[in-house]
Amino acid sequence: MRTLVVSDLHLGAASGKDLARRAELRAPLIEALRDADRLVVLGDGLELREAPHRAAAELAAPFLAEAGAALGPGGELLIGTCADPRVRRRAVAVLLEALDQAAKAAAQHAARTGTAQ
Question: Which of 7, 32, 33, 66 is 20 to 30 A from 72 (CA-CA)?
């Protein structure tokens, strides 16, 4: 199994400092994922200090959808968070919301293009 490990993406940053939001910086990461089976995002995978977690989920969902599509069926996405248990609980809620939004976007894309998931 080939694993790509990155750190400190700060996905969902309201300030826009999450560099994965910028297409020119995200593209090499997504391209590398096409040859990987697993993406591991170490510490500070999500930015939860700047905005309500629903807003962070909305900002993180496009990256998660694109990463999931690049990994393909059976791919794994593991996101680490802060050691603070209060932040971890919020991170789980954000991830679930973002993954739900990403899944809905993927289903809508498949329906529009006639491609199977």
Answer: 7
With a cut of 60, say whether residue 117 has pLDDT above it.
no
How far, in Å, CA of 68 to CA of 107, rounded? 13
φ, ψ of residue 57 in degrees (nearest 5): -60, -45
* Contact between residue 10 and residue 44 where contact means Cβ atoms under 8 Å apart: yes
**Tens digit of pLDDT for each residue in 60-94?**
888 888 898 898 888 888 877 665 566 666 666 76
CATH number of 28's domain: 3.60.21
Instruction: Return the sign of the alpha-carbon dihedral for residues 39, 96, 102, 52.
Output: negative
| Domain range enclosing 49 | 3-113
Q: Whose structure tokens read 């694109």?
A: 66
d(CA 35, CA 3): 9
> Is the separation of the CB atoms in 99 and 92 below 8 Å?
no
Angle between helices 85-113 and 53-71 (to 10 degrees): 50
> How many domains is the chain partitioned into structurally?
1
